[in-house]
Design goal:
It is built from nine helices and three strands; from the N terminus they run ααααααβαββαα. The radius of gyration is 27 Å and the shape is flat. α1 packs across α2 and α6 runs antiparallel to α8. The chain has a three-stranded antiparallel sheet, covered by helices on one side. By secondary structure, the chain is an alpha+beta fold. The N and C termini lie far apart (54 Å). β2 and β3 form a beta hairpin. The relative contact order is 0.11. The protein has three domains: 79 residues, no CATH class; 46 residues; 31 residues.
């Protein structure tokens, strides 16, 4: 069952636009917990809140929208550059989609769209944090430490008991 603090964090995230660490600090979590939000996001209570408030299908729909987000760009060209040459230049920009070429008194302006990588990355990052899908780095480091410690012990034992492996 979700705790009151966990529920408050979810409410604050909606108010703050998704900043999990800030929301945790606001409701009274320690700084170390706020810096390691996976401790919260991997808890059963948090998973319960997320399953009730954000359905996976809704998240996927938003992901699709965010993955399709674009930004408007423009380039200015001299008047003597042909529209055909401008189209060719834009076609060579990866993922660019030409919208229109307008002719002004001193220049031609080409408007085109590009994928909005910043928006896409931020949306995915936020969603994966909320769902607790990132691997816990602290656990990885602890496992590595334990493996190295065990390897060291085995090496010392092997040195003390050279015939034990035979």
């Amino acid at each position: 069952m979700a705790t009151i603090k966990q529920k408050l964090v979810a409410l604050k995230m909606v108010e703050n636009g998704g900043s999990l660490g800030s929301a945790m600090r606001e409701v009274g979590y320690s700084e170390s917990m706020a810096k390691n939000p996976q401790k919260l996001t991997k808890s059963k209570g948090w998973q319960e809140i997320m399953s009730k408030s954000i359905r996976e299908s809704e998240l996927l729909r938003v992901h699709r929208q965010m993955l399709g987000s674009v930004r408007l760009e423009k380039l200015a060209f001299d008047l003597d550059i042909s529209d055909e040459d401008i189209r060719y230049i834009i076609s060579k920009i990866k993922s660019a989609k030409l919208l229109v070429i307008s002719k002004g008194p001193r220049k031609k302006t080409c408007y085109y769209t590009m994928p909005d990588e910043r928006t896409r990355d931020r949306a995915l990052d936020m969603a994966y944090k909320v769902w607790g899908k990132y691997k816990d780095k602290d656990n990885d480091e602890e496992e590595q430490f334990q493996r190295e410690k065990m390897d060291g012990m085995i090496a010392r034992l092997s040195a003390l008991l050279p015939d034990a492996g035979d």
